[in-house]
Model the fold of this input.
Amino acid sequence: MGRIQLENVTKSFGDVEVIPPLNLTIEDGEFAVFVGPSGCGKSTLLRLIAGLEETSSGNVIIDDEDMTEVPPSKRGLAMVFQSYALYPHMTVRKNIAFPMRMAGLDEDEQEKRITAAAKALNLTDYLDRKPGQLSGGQRQRVAIGRAIVRDPSAFLFDEPLSNLDAALRVGMRLEISEMHNRMQTTMIYVTHDQVEAMTMADRIVVLQAGVIEQVGSPLELYHEPRNKFVAGFIGSPKMNFISGDEAAKHGAHTIGIRPEHTEVSTTEGLWKGVVGVAEHLGSDTFIHVHDTGLAGTFTVRITGDIAVRHGDTVYLTPQADQIHKFDTEGLRVA
Amino acid sequence: MSKRTLPRLLQTPAVFLLLVWMLVPLGMTLYFSFIRYVLNSLRRPEWTSPSLSNWRGFGNYEFVLKSKDFLLAIQNSLVIVCSILFLTVILGVLIAVLINRAFPGRGIVRVLLISPFFVMPAVNAVLWINMILDPVLGLQGIAVGSINDMVEGLRNAPLVGWFFSLWPELTPISFRATQTSALAVIIMVTWQWTPFAVLIFMTSLQSEDQQQKEAAVLDGAGPWSQFRFLTLPHLGRPIAIVVMIQAIFHLSLYAEIEIVSRGNGNKNLPYLIGEFANNNIGAASATGIFAVILANIVAIFLLRMIGKTLME
Done:
C-alpha cells in the first residue's frame, strides 16, 4: 500500500510562503512526477512528504494514517537523493544494509535482501567496493538498492538523474520505469526535466511557485494544457505563443501552436519568414524562423529533413485543429 | 639537456636547503653522541672541545641507559603524550559536535573556546599551577576549603547532621609533588590544546554532507547512530591529523615541566636532555637520538591504530 494524501499543506520559511495551501492525492501504485522550473517548491513538497521538513500547517496522510507528526524513519518511505547521499566510508554492501541494520533485522534476512537487490540492480560485482570507486550510474543504483531493501510503501526520488550524463540518464530512466512496472509500488519523482516527466509518469503534477498548475496524464497535459504555463512547459521544443491580430482571428487573446503542428513549405503558406537557424537531426529538423511578423522567433519541428538553411525564405502553416487558445488570464479556452 | 634536467636543476636549491636544514643538526647530534664532549672539565680539559680523538663509541648511550632517570623519562613522555591525545581528541570531538549546531551567540562562544590556544605555554603553566591548582591559594585550595567548611557546618544540623558527620575531611592535592606533577602537566596542556582539536574538527564538521544525514534519518538512524556511523568516520582523517601534530608537539614539552616541578618526579626526554646539556653534551646528544627513535615509533604506532579503528 502507498496512498499519499496532502491536505491543505502549507510551508513557509520565515515570512516567505513557499507552498500556499495545497491538496493532492497520489494513488497506490502510481508513478507521480512533480515537475516545474527550479525554485517552484517541488523538492520542498517531496521533503514535506518524507518528513525532512515540517509542514507549517495541513496534514500529510499515508495509507489513511495521519503522518504529519510522525518522524521520517517511521513513515515507511524511502528516498533517493540527487547527490546519491551514500555513506562514503562504507562498502556498497554496508550501504545497502544500513537501513536494515538500523531496523535490527537479522543477518540472514539482510543478506538475502542484499543479494536480491544487488542482482536486480546489477551490483553483484561491486558489493565490496566503496562508493568512491563507482561511476555515477552505479552510485545511483546503490542509492536505489538502499531504498529497495527497506520494502517501503512509496519511493521518493529527488532529481535522481540530474548528476548523470545524457546517455546514462536515458538508461537509468528506463531502469526506474521498469522497476516501477515490476514492483507496482507508489513512486514520487521530482524533476525539472519535462522529458523525464513525460516518459516516466502515470500522472504529472506541474508546479509553479508552490501552486499546482495542472495534474494529469502526460498526454492530457500535452493535448489539453489548462493554461499557458503548462502549455509552454510541456513539450519540446517549447510551444509558440502568438497574440494580437492573428490570435484575435481565432477569437482568443493568445494562441499557442506546437512546433510539430506546423507545416513548412518553401513556396507557399500562411505566414512568411526567414530561417534563422536550422538544426538538422536527421530524424527531425528544428527550424527557428524570424521576421514572421508574429512574436519573436517561431520554432518549427518537422519529421525528416528539408533543405533549408540560414537566410532562406520559408512559409509556415499551422494545423488548424491543433491551435491552443488562451484568454487574457492565460487560461485555456475551448 | 633533456626535458627533465631543467626542472630537476631548478628544484636543487630547495632540496639542498632542506637537506642541510635537517641533516646538519641530525649529523652533529649523531657525531656528538659518539664522542666525549663536556662544556666544563678541570680534570680533562681536552674533552671540552669536540674532536674525533675523544671517540667514545656507544659509551654515551650506555651512560644514558644506565642513568636512573632514563626509564622514568621514557615512561613519562609516553604517559603524558598519550593522556593528552586521548583527552583532547575526546573533548575536541564532543565540543565540536556541540557547537556545530546553530544557537544564539555561537560566534562569541567559538572565539572564547579557541582562546586558550593563544596563551603562551609558560604563562599557561604559571597560571594553572599558581592560580588554579595551588593547594592553598589556588582555586583548588579555596574550593576544598569551602567544601570542608560547609560540611563542618552541616554536621551540627538536625536530621541530616549524622550523614555529613560520616564525610571525611577533604585534603587538597599538591600538584607540585612527585606523584602528581605529571597530572598537573596533563591537565594544563589538555586545556591549552583542546581548542586546537575543536578548531580542526569544527571545520571538518562543516564540510559534512547534510544529505547523507537526511538519508540516514530516513534509514532510521537515531542521533547516536548518525554520530557513530557518519560523523565519527567523517572525522577519521582530522583526528589522525590532530593526533600526529599533537604527538610531535607534546613529545617535546618542556616549559610546563620546568615550571610545575623543575623535573621533580616528572621528567620527559627533552627535560632529561636539558639536564644533561648543563654539562655533558655527549650524553645529551645520545638522549636526543633516543628521543628521535621514540618519536618515530610513537608516530607509526598511533597512525596505524587510528587508521584501523576509524576508517573501517
